[in-house]
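Comment thread on ticket #2218

A.B. wrote:
> Attaching the input chain for the structure job we discussed in standup.
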Amino acid sequence: MISQLLLAALTLCVAPQSRTEVVTMKAVRIHAFGGVEQLKHEDAEKPVPGAGEVLVRVQAAGVNPVDWKAREGLLKSLAPKLPQVLGYDVAGKVEALGPGTEGVKVGDAVCAYLSLSRGGGYAEFALVRVDELALAPKKASVTEAAGLPLAGLTAWQALVDEAELGPGQRVLIHGGAGGVGHLAVQLAKARGAFVYATAGTQNQAFLKELGVDRPIDYTTERFEEIATDVDVVLDTIGGETAQRSYSLVKRGGTYVSIVGPPDVTSLAERGVNGRAILVQPNGEQLAELVKLVDEKKLKVAVSATLPLAEARRAHELSAKGHVRGKLVLSVAP
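C.D. wrote:
> Ran it. Output below, let me know if you need it in another format.
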């Protein structure tokens, strides 16, 4: 009897563990909504790619205003359950492939916009749907690649999909020095449009570098006295700026807002199409943006790069506003 008990005990000691070992990674997560103190740089479970998914070893992650809005709980209806890894822009290399991921291979340099319902960019590894990524630009740094997807796709879906901006048309872009704005300016120029753009005094030279035909200093000039009878307005500001802009769009033109619904009734009375967009992941459109980068028609301006562990500082900078171009978190070499 004793020998049988000893044998059973020895068997338990040497038997393989049936539970799968959890592999961890460093990530920035929130366990509750609120201020920057909710951002925790900590260990999290490394994700495993499922069908149609690619595991990306993240080298850099873009920071956008929507990030701190999600942290504050303004996107509760879209966000996954807590704890949540924030971040929606990534650039890095393919680490592993799930089933049904043709067209990409391990080791490929890629970039992607992760949908607002998924997130996961502030981490050493992130899951990306294969149809939502693109090969990274060959003529851009990894930090520039990380700053491209969300802002670039927002500009594309606003100006190309909604406004159908084309050669010879006139567009007014509010916040032309910001993350979306500076890419929208370059995209509009690439499509042959005449571009007005607003920014503060300190960014007037930057607007000229981007190719803006008529920079407008909103601190000393009234844009409605300069940019009249335009085909398209891209509103990245909202509020009073929106109200002052409605009358500038000529009949048959388009007013696109990325900061909330415009007054479509007022716009319709003027014969103007009013649109509000919430950017969606799209690998094909992202590939078109990458092509423009490699053709040197589009450049991502990165104003600051911070380590992943300093995500709180990045959120503070973003929330203050007036960021020129993009903020990026450096995750891995």
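A.B. wrote:
> Thanks. Noting for the ticket: DSSP finds ten helices and 16 strands in the chain.
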